[in-house]
Amino acid sequence: MSDGPLERGALYVVATPIGNLGDLSPRALAVLRGVDWIAAEDTRHSGVLMTRFGIEVPLISAHAHNERGRAEDLVTRLEAGTTGALIVDAGSPGISDPGARIVRRVAEAGRPVRVVPGPSAVIAALSLSGFAADAFTFAGFLPPKDAARDTRLAGLLARGETVVMYEAPHRVRATLEALARLAPGRPLAACRELTKLHEETLRGDTAAVLAQLTAERERGEWVLVLAGTGGAAPGDAADTAAGTEAGGVTEDDPRARFIAAQIESGASPDEARRRAEFVLGPERRRRGKERA
User: N or C: which end of the chain has fewer CB within 10 A?
Assistant: First the structure.
């Protein structure tokens, strides 16, 4: 798409800042100023953004509880020849936020949908983590109930690629406790208040990150980036190969630490190994043993 006039009758899906208002792109600003209306997750919240940038465009409420019905209204507006934008409180519409139903309905109605990409907490946290990101799983928010959360985590912990999760301030301690219990030794980067004044990233294995969590830190919005079973970062591959070729298990071996922790908690060695395979995935045969 060029930087010329906006397409009439089109819906523009616009990413907005996740914290720092300076991250609003020039193109996003031009689109928000140029449309006839803006569908916003929370009109009061988005009103702050509009005031900050002098955007004088009518706001229409479009949140999780009215999205289905609102989609029909927006299609009618687009079919009448008006041009609109869709935004959420922070980041990109439809990514653990409302918006997907509206986009789908507009597309089904044959109206053009254009995207104005920008800030993303998922991508920002992956960049900060230092973990491999050639492939990753985005899990969104975990289930709020303990049993459902642990079941979901068990599946995610078995994945070979990096896993990214959102977590709310009032649930982050319980989630970090579950990670420390289910995956001791697994590398974790816990990103808090991304792009905001108190942004920070807690690093270490799951237990070490849990130990760094204070009551003050619990107040922030979190993105948790968990290394997959395939390794923590691209540069770790050579070190891992060197260690496994020698046939030994280092103190930093997540599987060995997991098994030791399970045995310490009362599991038999066989049961501990079965749990490790369930949570961490099948063990790769070490090349040193293959040559024996």
Answer: C
